[in-house]
Amino acid sequence: MDNVSEIAAETEHAIEERARFTAMENGTREDWAIISRDYMAFAKDLPDRVLTHLKLLDGDFGGFPICRLEHSLQTATRAHRDGRDEAYVVMALLHDMGDTLGTYNHPEVAAAIIKPFVTEEVHWICQHHGAFQGYYYFHFLGMDRELREQFRGSPYFDACAEFCQKYDQAAFDPDYKSEPLEFFEPMVRRVMAKPLPKTFVRDEAA
Ligand SMILES: [Fe+2]
Ligand SMILES: [Fe+2]
């Protein structure tokens, strides 16, 4: 079969395999069997999409001593060498990946992406690290360095302060020898292989 007929056959196959509803309220079990199968294949590639997006930070200095990808690697390396578990290290690696699209709220982007795969505490640290990191520089910009105090009542306050103190604010050293991205790739794949059971159950607090 030549290329053109191969593509045509593939396209026909893809059309055959699509759900038939024009509004979800008319969907059938068969439609959802097709969609579920495609979704599983798509979900399996999530780590690749995440790693591809993380690489966008390469060479992006934004005035900092090291680029955003190096900062991410250094944050993750420091957490790993300090004995943190894989989910924590992956959070450390990805914590700033939202800088590209979430320029004004980057912690929330990474937090949303890792949420299905990490504990509530690790998610909280990621989601709130911006305010806690501000303790180290907001006052230089005429802002309130104590902004994190609004979260003092959280059970995760100390854990988030520790993340920023030990790993995030400390990860701007051009002479620090970080592990390369390849070192962390298997961790990203393992952590993102399957959502934790909490993901699809009712949140009674909601
Ligand atoms: Fe950040
Ligand atoms: Fe950071």
From TrEMBL:
| Pfam families the record matches | HD
Start and end residues of each HD domain:
68-139
This chain's protein is named HD domain-containing protein
Species source reads Novosphingobium tardum
The upper taxonomy is: Bacteria, Pseudomonadati, Pseudomonadota, Alphaproteobacteria, Sphingomonadales
